[in-house]
Design goal:
heterodimer; A: 231 residues; mainly alpha; Arc Repressor Mutant, subunit A; two-stranded antiparallel ribbon; B: 291 residues; Protein Transport Mog1p, Chain A; 3 domains; elongated; transcription (chain A); RNA_pol_sigma70_r2 (chain A); RNA polymerase sigma factor (chain A); DNA-binding (chain A); sigma factor activity (chain A)
Chain lengths: 231, 291
Amino acid sequence: MPFFFSKKPASIAQDLSLAGGEASRPDAFEVELLGHLDTLYSVSCRMTKSSTEAEDLVQDTIVKAMRARRQFEPGTNLKAWLLRILTNTFINRYRRGGLERDLFEGPDAEPLTDGWVGATTMRAMRDPETQALSPLIEAEVQRALDELPDEFRLAVILSDIEELSYKEIAEAMGCPIGTVMSRLHRGRKMLQKTLREQAVLLGIVSEEDGKKSSEAPADLGAYRKRKLGVA
Amino acid sequence: MSAARQMDDCARLDLALTAYVDGELDAAHAVDLEAHMRQCAPCFERVALMRASRMSLRRTTSKRCPEALRVKLMTGMASERARKDAKDAVAETQPSLIQKRYVAGFAAAASVAFAVAGYQNHRATAGTVAEAPREPVQQGTLAAATMESLLDDLVAQHAQPLPPETTNPEDLPRFDPFVGVPVRRPQFQAQAFPVDFKGARVHTMRERRAALLQYTVRGGHRVTVYLFNSQAVPVQKAPILRPRMVRERPVYVGHISGYSVVAAERSGVGYALATDLSDEESTQLVLAAMQ
C-alpha cells in the first residue's frame, strides 16, 4: 500500500475540490456549466447515436469549454455557446472534412408534393390532448430522428429539441442561415415521412389517405374554433 | 379560391411554414401566412404536426447525464483548474513553480484513478441498473445484490487502498453533499483499544457514493469504513452475511476474501467495515462507530 501513508494527501484533496480550499472550488462559470450536463449528454447521444461516443464527446466539449472560457461573454447564452463547441467538435471529429455537401439543398431540390400529406392524415397523427404526436407514433420518433442524415439531424436537434435560433445554429454548424432553414425544412419533412409510414403500418391512417394530394378544406367554422384553441 | 390557386399559395409559403413554426418569420410575412392558414387546412395541419413532432422529440430524447460521467467530468474540471493554477503560479513567482507543478501532477494522477474506478463500475453494471425499476417483485433480491456489491467493493478498497483525499477529520462534513448523509467521524469512544484516523476519501460505487474512512487499530491493523446513504443501499441480509442481534440492534457479519466484514445501520446512515480482526472485534468496532 504505497499511497496509504502518502505525505501529501491534503493538497490532493484541495485540488480535487472535494475537501474545499479557496482556489479549488468550482466558480460561477463551472457551476453553470455543470447545470448543462444533462443537455450536453442528451444532444451527444442523439448526435453520435452511441452512449460511448456520447461520453467522449461531452468530455471533449467540457475540456474545450474550460480552456476557452475567456472567450465566453458573461451574460450571453452559455447553453448555445456550449452546443456550438459540441457541434463543432462532433463535425470535426466524427465527420472529418465537415458535413457532406448536400447537392440537393435548397427549396427547389425536391418537388413540393414529396411528403405531401392530406390534412386528415396529419390530424390523425396527432394526439389532440397532449398537443404531441399520437402515442403510437411517438414511440418511433427517436428511430426516425436517428435515420436522418447528419446535417439534417443536427439542425433538427438544435432547433426542435434545444430551441436555438437560426443564427445560433448557423454559428454552430458553420453554414449560412438560409442553409439552416432549408436543412430544417427538409429534415422535418423526412421525419414526417417516416412517421407517416409508421402510421400507415399501424393502421392509424390508410395508405390511400396518405397519398391523397389535396383535399377540400374542412368545415370552416369548426376549423376556426380549432385554430383559436391552438393559437 | 380555386384549388389551383391554393396549391400555388402553398408552394409559395411552404418554406415560410418552417420559419413560422420556429418564430423566425418577420411580422409582415407571419400575418400573411396566418391569413392563408385560416383558409387552408393542409397548411394549418402541417404547422400543427410540426409542433406536435417537436413536442414528442423533446419528450423522448431527454436523458440524464450518468452519475459516473458527471463525477469524471467534475474531476476533470478540477484538474483543469489545477493546471491553470499551476500556470498562473509560474507567471507569479519562481519558487512556487516546483511545488505547484508537483501538486498538479499528483492531482491529475489521483483524479484519473478515481474516475476510472467509477467509470468501470458503471459500465459493468449498466445492464443491471437499467433493468431494476421494471421488476418490483425482485426488489428484495436486487437490494441484496446491491448490498453485496457494496461489500465486495469495500473489501477491494480495503485490500488495495487508494490514497486519502484528506487526513484532516475537520474536512469530513464537506463530504456530505457527495454522500447524501451527514459524514461524521466515528470516535470509537467505547473501544478498549486505541483507534487512529488515517484519512478519508469520497468513493464512487456504481451510481452511488460513500465516504471511505481509513483507520488503524491496535498495532497497525487497518480498518476501512464506508459511510453511505442506507436509504439508497438498504443494509439488510445479503447471502454472504449472517444477521446477529447485538445490543438490540441487527448487525450483519460475514467474510469476504478472508477479511471480516460487518454492516449495520443507524438513523439513515449505513456503516460497513472491513478488517483483518476477528468477527467479534469487528462487530464491536461497528457498534462503537455508530455511537
